[in-house]
Amino acid sequence: MVEYRIDRRSGVATYLQIVQQTKQALRLGLLEPGDQLPTAREVVEATAINPNTVLKAYRELEREGLVEARRGLGTFVRRALGAAAAGSPLRSELAAWAARARASGLDRDDVAALFASVLDEQFADSTDNTEGDEAMNKGDNA
Amino acid sequence: MTDTAIEAAALGKRFGGPSRRGGWALRDCGFRLPAGRICAVVGPNGAGKSTLLAHAAGLLEPTEGTLTVLGSHPSAARERIAYVAQDKPLYPQLTVTETLRLGHELNPGRWDAALAERIVTDGHLDPAARIRDLSGGQRTRVALALVLGKRPELLLLDEPMADLDPLARHQLMGTLLAEAAEHGTTVVMSSHILGELAHACDFLLLVGDGRIRLGGAIDDLVAAHRLITGRGPLTDALAPHTVIESRATGRGLTALIRPAGPIAPGWEAAEPSLEDILLAHLRSPDAPALLTPGATARSSASDMSAAVTA
Amino acid sequence: MSASATLRRSSGGRLRGPYWTTVRLHRAILWGALGLVIAAAVVAVALRVSAVVIPEQTDCVGACTDTFLGFDSARAFLGITADYAATALLFLPFLVGAVVAGPVIARELESGTHRLAWTQSASPARWLAAKLTVAAVATTALVLALVGSYQFLRAPVAGTYNQRWVDRGVFEAYGPVLIAYCLLAVAIGALAGLVVRRTLPAMAIAGVVSLSMILAVGSVRWDVFPVRTITGSGTGRMDGTMAIGRDSFLMQSGYVTASGDRLPYNACWQRTRDFDSCPADLNITGWYVDFHPHTHFWWVTFAETAIMLALAAAAAWAAFRLLRRRTV
Question: Per the UniProt record, which residue ranges are transmembrane (chain C) (predicted)?
């Protein structure tokens, strides 16, 4: 069972933190297909965040095909995320790039800013935006 | 069951006699809170938050205007509403157990004894301890046990977490929201600071000077504002939009606006945080009010008076 | 079953809802009332027993030596206690009104616990109804118990000076009248508590108003209720006062003139220093006596009880109305 840690000062929307942490757990193999995600009630009780936020995150994961909600049972993992795991070629390329950046005199913050700006550029079209959808019932996924 | 938890139309409350000048705690207050929301009522001290909650709890009669709760007059919805006043009133001479028995006796047929006892037990309270011997935080816990045990459809909490240490605050808020998630309870919490409420709530009412200055789903309110930064001439860039606040930053300008059309090129627009929006509105008391469509009162006055007399 | 067992059983087992709440919240006051009842009963029994066990000294010449706690006798002490007890009972409405106004009603409004009580499923009207009912039942039981002890205490001195049926305190302490005044005090207390909303001022106002009622009405009671009059011919005024009997209460007596006017009882005495010889110029044709026969006891008891209960109902109605305006 995955346990979400909400960073209230990160500036990242709370539902996105849940989405990202779920994906991270899928990448690292902490969650596998068939596993159940914690119920909205359990997440809310542990994190004291809004129930609708949890449901919004789960809907987003469902939309991406990663999980599925089974009525009355809970939310279950449908497929794993296997890319970019530790030891993949992409990771070693990135490690080599980071070493060069450091050697050229950039400090940690410079590297992070550079990386973030490239990410923004490359993934500009995939910004998640799932607004609205008022007609949900909090009771359903609980 | 109605889809509206609270609806106010032209609600006004004046304390003291009519001769006293400026005694309005609420004036021309209108909004709609959909059912199932976790709503934060924020605003500076003395803005009218407590007065608003007391009206919804059926403890005050409006001087003018109307307020319906769960589709009916507050007094008709008494069984389905629970309310904790700011000072957490409890009977000092009762023990914790007796206080929960009181909840059972005064709410027959609704009372969830197991839930109320669990909330008390989670705080390691001695059931035989008298209320007068409890700390402020322990008293808050008993008060919350009392209202959650009632299993209300609408839970009204006036500054609920002020007396709690961070751990108890987190735990009780978790319990509260979990119950709300399971039963679809509408929760209204007031606070003069947003703080942790920001993550717990999905609906916001900003009260200022007895009026609703902002009302709506938090996502909608955030989407309705933009934080723009740039160096161009002020008037051209901002002309079509509603400017809440603008401030010089270095050589440029940062402004919180409600966009009414495309933003002029050369200006960088970002999504503001809820805190940005609140602070800008608090610093600009004259900014026009904004109620999102979902937060606007729908009933006509005649519908409301029918509900009152029913 | 003892009264304490009754209290414990009813607060533990049978009471429900706002009635349980009210009894539990005001348990200390109810125990206090029970203590008062027990103390009164103990004093009454002790004095009655003493009056029997320690007889009066009748064989002493001149001043008798003190025989009982500095009093002439145990019976004399009993008589004095009965006199004071009758007066003390007149203060019961003060006590009842103050307790209901302050600790029972106003303290809730002052400390803010009414916001807890009025937002439960049981409505504010039921909250007030439970408070009034519990207060009324407890008050009735308290008055009955104290009146019972008092009647037991005064039995040996009943009818003596200060212990006649018309006397202040004695009249009320036969039961119904005092109960009615105390129930009126309950309603006045509730109304004062809701109006004033502060414990001590509410206690003072309700106590003083309740006490004023019983004292004021008591001072005009026999003047207001219509007297019975007997008349006779001649100047033998004293014959009339003798004729009304020991059980009756003489209000006024005097002479009647030929023109029908009434003259005071001492009209002749002032002129002749003799009650029975009257100067001819007064034209006295007979005498009159205004009095209350003992049967008036029942009429006045009934009338006064009814009036006070009606006033109590009116005050209670006003309290409910005020509460309804206060909440929604």
Answer: 28-47, 84-106, 127-153, 173-196, 203-222, 297-320
